[in-house]
Design a protein that fits this description.
Number of domains: 1
Number of strands: 5
Order of helices and strands: HEHEHHHEHHEHEHHHHHH
Oligomer: single chain
Distance between the termini: 111 Å
Helix content: 55-70%
Length: about 350
């Protein structure tokens, strides 16, 4: 009678390898099946290049945004804006830009107006280029309510010229912004990821983003880390100006309020929040938000740099002395204030 030979028992490691291979095989089959089910245009098989255009939403940035598009001819332009059903009508010329803009409150109206004017004209020239609005917005009503309340309290403090209360209120608002911003960045990254993986977007994709929303790019870069067909890069609209003021290799320098938000968002050192808020109150009074050219943009960075040299008590002193000054007068006052302060320090060190 012949005895059958028993097969050697597999080790746990060998079984794990076999199971992993089966799982990978199933995932590949599922992916192929899913791609077949995706409706619409034929799936793109080339390299998709996602380029983030980080900006400060100034009229100067609108010009740089326009220049980059004209030079690089992207296949998709992704705006940092909530989806509006009237947007396409405005692009097609069926609604005036003025009427369209009345539908929303714009933090940077001049930038938005210039951007819409260019995009509408470009859409008529290049109708095949997709122009999309993707900014889902955070979904945290409790935090949004607290933020709205904090803004009202800040307005009362600023009107009453209560510097300490204003600095504290601003720090609180930026902490709430960090919660909302992190949620919104994740939702926006997911929306972009979803469209790329489904083949809805491909080729060169230009993504507009505020300079403090780098998390969107970082998330996508991590998700597409092992995908050889997707390249993710970025440009900073103010890089050349920042390097002039802060040295080569500097990509961006954030206003103090944004720095509070970034620290809160990434759980970095949170000490000195109210000092940063105090410095922002001074810096924000020394430059225009809608920078129209390189000179105005550079002045904004110089204001941030000067304010960062002030202590909390010096910020209070400067605030009190410059309450009724214009933007330019405040800038010159702080410049002279620091000069005299440094001279006193130098003189005190003399033997």
């Amino acid at each position: 009678m012949l005895k059958s030979k028993s097969l050697p028992e597999q080790s746990d490691a060998e079984r794990d390898v076999k199971q992993q291979a089966e799982v990978v095989g199933r995932l590949k089959n599922f992916k192929n099946w899913l791609y077949e089910k995706v409706k619409g245009e034929e799936r793109f098989t080339g390299t998709t290049k996602v380029v983030f255009f980080f900006e400060r939403h100034s009229p100067r940035d609108a010009e740089l945004f326009k220049d980059w598009i004209e030079k690089n001819k992207p296949d998709v332009i992704v705006l940092e804006a909530f989806k509006d059903r009237k947007f396409k009508k405005m692009l097609d010329g069926g609604m005036s830009i003025e009427k369209y803009m009345k539908r929303h409150k714009y933090t940077f109206p001049e930038f938005s107006r210039q951007q819409f004017e260019f995009l509408r004209e470009y859409h008529h020239r290049e109708p095949k280029v997709k122009i999309e609005q993707v900014d889902p917005g955070p979904k945290n009503l409790r935090v949004e309510f607290l933020k709205e309340f904090a803004y009202k309290a800040l307005g009362i403090s600023m009107d009453a010229h209560l510097f300490d209360a204003s600095a504290h209120g601003l720090a609180v608002i930026q902490g709430l912004d960090a919660i909302l911003g992190k949620q919104n960045d994740a939702r926006r990254a997911f929306a972009i990821d979803d469209r790329i993986r489904k083949g809805k977007w491909h080729g060169t994709i230009l993504v507009e983003a505020g300079s403090d929303h780098t998390e969107v790019k970082n998330l996508l870069k991590g998700w597409f880390k092992y995908d050889e067909n997707v390249e993710i890069s970025s440009i900073f609209s103010t890089k050349n100006l920042v390097e002039k003021e802060f040295g080569a290799g500097t990509l961006e320098v954030y206003p103090q309020a944004h720095e509070i938000e970034r620290r809160s968002r990434y759980k970095k050192d949170l000490s000195g929040e109210e000092l940063l808020a105090a410095r922002f109150i001074i810096a924000a009074c020394m430059y225009e938000t809608d920078c129209k050219d390189d000179a105005e943009e550079l002045k904004a960075y110089q204001a941030i740099k000067m304010a960062n040299r002030l202590s909390y008590e010096e910020c209070k002193e400067v605030y009190k002395k410059t309450e009724n000054m214009t933007t330019d007068e405040r800038f010159n006052f702080v410049k002279e204030y620091l000069k005299k302060r440094d001279e006193k320090i130098t003189d005190s060190m003399q033997p």
